[in-house]
Structure formats: C-alpha cells, structure tokens
Amino acid sequence: MKTNWPLLFAAFCVVALLPVWALAQGGDEEEQWIPIDGLLADVAATGEDAKEPEPEEKPPTGPTEQELEWARTAWSYFVANEHPKTGLVAAVNKFNSTTLWDEGGYFLAIVAAFRLGLIQEAEAKARLRKAFESLEKIPLFQDKLPNKVYNTGTLQMTDYANKPTPDGVGWSALDIMRLLSGMLVATQQFPDLTEQAQAVINRWDMSLLASEGRFQGIAVHGKHQDKFVQEGRIGYEQYAGVIGLEIGLPVELASRYGPILRHQRFHDILIPGDIRTQETHGVSSVTTSEPFLLEALEFGFRPESMPVARAVYEAQMFRYDLTGHLTALSEDHIKGKPYFAYNAVLMDHTPFISVTAKRVNVSDKRGISTKGSFGWWALMQDDYSQKLLDAVKHLQSDRGWYAGLFESDLSANEILTMNTNAVVLEALHYKNFGPMFQR
C-alpha cells in the first residue's frame, strides 16, 4: 500500500524550523549542516568540529563573463536534448533515454541557469512543469516506484539499451534521491510548483526505499532476482542519505561515514575506502569524486564529510605530484567501448584503477573529468584545482561540454552527457552563490 508522504512540503518546514527531526536519530549530539566556501582545510586537517564561518563583508560580485560563457555552453546541452513532447532530457546526447538520476540533474541545471541569469523565470517554470507532468504519467515498476530507465519520448520503461521492457528492470533508491534533490531545489526556488511536484511523489511507495537505516533497491537479474538489495557505497550512500534525511526518510545510518569508513595506505597518504568490498559483501566499492562533489555543491558539506572529501581530493593531487598526470577522477561515459567507466581513486584495495560496472579493468581509458575538474575548482579554489580547470576549459561544443580528456594521450573524450553539463552548472552556481539548496 502506498504511503502519502508530504515530502516537499516537509522540506520547506525544514528550512524554517531547523533542526530536522531526522538529524536527532543518530545520537545525543545535534549534527551541524554547514554550507561552506571551500572545504575548510584547517578543519579537515585537524579533524576538529567545524564552526560556522564568519559572514563575509563584501557582497558577491556575480559570475564573470568567462563563467557565463562556460555556463551557456553547459545550458546548450539541455536546449538541444529536451524532448519537445515530454520535456524530459536525454542522459546522453541524441539518445532518447534517461534515468531519474539524470532528470534530477536537469532540475538542478534549470535552477542554476535561472540564478546565473541564463534563462528567465517563465522559461524555468515552464520546463519544470512540463517535466513534472511527464513524471506523473510514467509507469512504475510493479506499480510501486519508478523504473531505473525510461524512453524520453514515449515514457515507456526500458532497459539501458533503450529497449522497451514492459516489466521494467527494477528501481534504484539512489537515483530517486538524486531526483528528489533536484525537486527540493526547484520547489524551494519556485514554491508555487510544490503541489505539482508533490503529486509526482504521491504515486510512489516511499516506504520501500529504506530498511534498517539504509537504502535498498530491487534486482531483476541474477541470483538476487526480485529481491531487495542494500544500495550505496562510500560517498554515494552518504550523499543520498543527506537527501533522505531532508525529506524525512529513516536513513540516518546511510548518511554517516563512521560505520563504513576505512583507509588504504598509498605511499605516504591514506585513501578513504569502504569496509564493504567484493570479498566481504559480493560487490566492489569505488571511491571517486562525484558523490563528494554533489553533496557539497547541492547542500554544503557537513563536518563529518569534510575530511573524507578533502582526502579524496588530496589523493588525486598526490598522484599528480607522483606521476605528473593531472588527476580528476569520476564516473563518466566514454565515446566508444566500454561506453562507461568508474574512474576510481580506490576500488576495494586497489588505488587508481578504472573499471566498468562489472569491474573490468579499463584503466587505459582513464579520464580527466570535466565535471570533476569544475567541481573541485569551485570548491577548492587552489592552484591544483585551477590546473584541472585549465586542462579542460577548451572542451566546449555547440551542444555542451565534452566529458573530459583521456589521460593516455590527452585527446578529448567527445561524448556529451546531461550529468557532465548539470555538474558544470552546479559548480558555477556554487562558485558564485554557494550550495544549490539554501538552508
């Protein structure tokens, strides 16, 4: 039976009535949520509790003309790939397939584009309304929750090859959380859209998303067919947990690093990893930049996540100092086989390896990520992040930003994706205005 969750309305109460009830689940001490300017290196280095930074006296100057040019390039992806019938945007250029993860990125991109002055309020609202209308119509997996993949034109459930799949391929709690992040930001910016966004969610059985404090998805292939499986590993799980707590889901355990965090020695540094590995849990764990960037760009860092994120960043800087290879690792699509890779800072016990979703080694395709470079540049504002930005800032096309550079020969990975361009817009927003969701 579906539960009618007043999720987005509750989110607005959160803004006015902090602290959130869910934050109290973890113990006696109230957790602080602190949007930050950079990663507060002094706190990360000492591990001491963070204090809220003093407000800056000078007002923000707004984006530079160069930053606006970069933002316009990113926005061009969404103009080119919005389906005229449904208002949904393709996850990959000219391929009418999408996930809820990607549509969440679209909603964030709309708000970033509006705040950066690229589009007017009327256009932003029209795009959101059209997408919400389509999401109200999509068929649900087992009539409970959204399928993992949809055709952007027909709204049919599909597999990842965009083949119609009437029974669906399961649902992903993490993808749903990313969509809800976009909805939270969009309805905070435009409160009059809250009722329509709520109508989308009211069709879903949200009670299925969490179990014993963590997220769960459902698998339809292999030995776990039609069974619930715990979903999320280091970074991704905690990012989703932040969103889940914001809307009132019982996922306090998922939001925390402490219960799963370990460190892998690499030369003179320690790389954050997940205690859950292929050997212990049957699924490899990947440490990479993306989830740490998303949490910061959208919500600001928490004291618990700051040192973990900084260690992930500094491991990449250390590799550059060690090898001379600029390192900005994230998950990315690839033009040509294998089409997608997790560029890992750490996979289980192996540092700096790139793997497919099935964990096949494709380190010859390791990339310098455009979104990773923009994200770290926006957060860190230091010499190394500037080098990353300088390396990728030419990767523009008339349909958006390319995904990055191949490390082996520094040639462009000439694939255009929604995720890359959404994160570029989020990064430019953070650089000028701070986190997307305003507390």
Structure description:
This protein has one domain: Glycosyltransferase (Alpha/alpha barrel), CATH 1.50.10. The protein has helices at 7-16, 41-46, 65-81, 100-115, 121-137, 173-189, 194-201, 236-247, 252-255, 278-281, 290-299, 305-323, 370-380, 383-392, 418-433, and strands at 97-98, 140-141, 145-146, 150-151, 210-211, 214-219, 227-230, 261-266, 269-274, 286-287, 331-333, 340-347, 350-355, 367-369, 396-397, 400-406, 412-416. The protein is of the alpha+beta class and 439 residues long. The protein is globular. Helices cover 40% and strands 15% of the residues. α8 runs parallel beside α11 (290-299). A hairpin with a 3-residue loop joins β2 (140-141) and β3. The strands form 6 sheets. Strands 10, 11, 12 and 13 form a 4-stranded antiparallel sheet that branches. Strands 14, 15, 16 and 17 form a 4-stranded antiparallel sheet that branches. The protein is built from 15 helices and 17 strands.
Tell me the number of helical segments per DSSP (H or I, 4 or more residues long). 15
The total beta strand count reads 17
Roughly what percent helix? 40-55%
Top-tier CATH class: Mainly Alpha
Q: Low-confidence stretches at least 5 residues in length (pLDDT < 50)?
A: 9-58
* Average pLDDT figure: 88
CATH topology: Glycosyltransferase
Helix- and strand-based class?
Answer: alpha+beta
The biggest beta sheet is recorded as:
4 strands, antiparallel
Mind telling me the CATH superfamily name? Glycoside hydrolase 144 (GH144)
Q: Indicate the overall shape.
A: globular
**Which percent range describes the beta-strand content?**
15-25%
CATH architecture: Alpha/alpha barrel
